[in-house]
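Dock zinc ion; give full complex structure.
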Amino acid sequence: MKMQAAVVEAFGQPLVLREWDIPVAGPGQIVIKTEACGVCHTDLHAANGDWPLKPGLPFIPGHEAIGKVTEVGAGVTIVKEGDRVGVPWLYSACGHCEYCLNAWETVCPDAKFGGYTRNGGFAEYILADPNYVAHIPNGLAPSEAAPLICAGITTYKGLKQTSAKPGQWVAISGCGGLGHLAIQYAKAMGLLVCAVDIDDGKLTHAKALGADVIVNAKHEDPAAAVKKSTGGGAHGVLITAPSLIAFKQGIGMARKLGTCVLVGLPPGEFPVPLFDVVANCITVRGSFVGTRADMAEALAFAVDGKVRADIELQPLSAINEVFNRLRHGDVPARVVLNFQSA
Ligand code: NAD
Ligand code: ZN
Ligand code: ZN
């Protein structure tokens, strides 16, 4: 049996829309019929082969996939046919290394990545590990849930990693797919938000979503502007922008004793101003998606109506056009591929 999929056959080339074998659930596995899958900037990095760890070719990207379980392999008890689940970036982990034991499965050395080292959601069916799928609460439509299982969980976890407390400031650099959700999580967590982007449309949107202050990094020095509006710098900085310049600027936005959380993944390196970081006791840390516990918390905000992804629906066949728009910053928030017939 065949399905339609968008496939990366060569890095840096358009995806190929073609037939692919529908996966079959082996012992301990499940198959999901895709209802919706968000398009993350990470999918673009994956298709470009941007990072040192490269996926094997050909592969099917997509790690914001939501769908219903259609097949359950032998021994699976945690989900049943018909359950609505999500297949996220953290596709599976070993469950018994020092990181898994400490609920840090995101950095398990044996972790597999959805839409990267395992085939993902730009296809009508997906094979998944039932121990690592997201459980989609009732009341959340598949297309609304899709962006939450990567963009949502990543920014929610990233904000927690800033250690900013209610009433304190966070600066969010990059207000696209990740950033527009980060602003909403931050407001729901009682934080003051300074939103930074290079696009006025994104910043108008940021303001509408509750940002207290907006800064266009193209028109003014964003570090100076954030320091001025926050009375000395943000307690937490979350950098989601897929741009190296945003990283150096982000360090400059931090308050003394502040924490700068790096989430964006443009290929390359950036210079750290050592004197500023050392003399101001600034913490710089990376953050990578989130754990299963973070997933449940991130989804609960949406069920309560505190966070809502802004989505534009497109068919799978539009994927190359969507990639081009994402490359040029022309996606207002998140595109979600819609697999449900009207
Ligand atoms: P996106 O394209 O939807 O949004 C990026 C935003 O950054 C846009 O609004 C753009 O205008 C803005 N931007 C670009 N340059 C900027 C600059 N110099 N200063 C401020 N803003 C700038 O992308 P996305 O889907 O939100 O993903 C963003 C990045 O996060 C990607 O690199 C992606 O791979 C990464 N990511 C990381 C994780 C993780 O776990 N760490 C998870 C998901 C995505
Ligand atoms: Zn993602
Ligand atoms: Zn492990």
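Observed: The mean pLDDT is 98.
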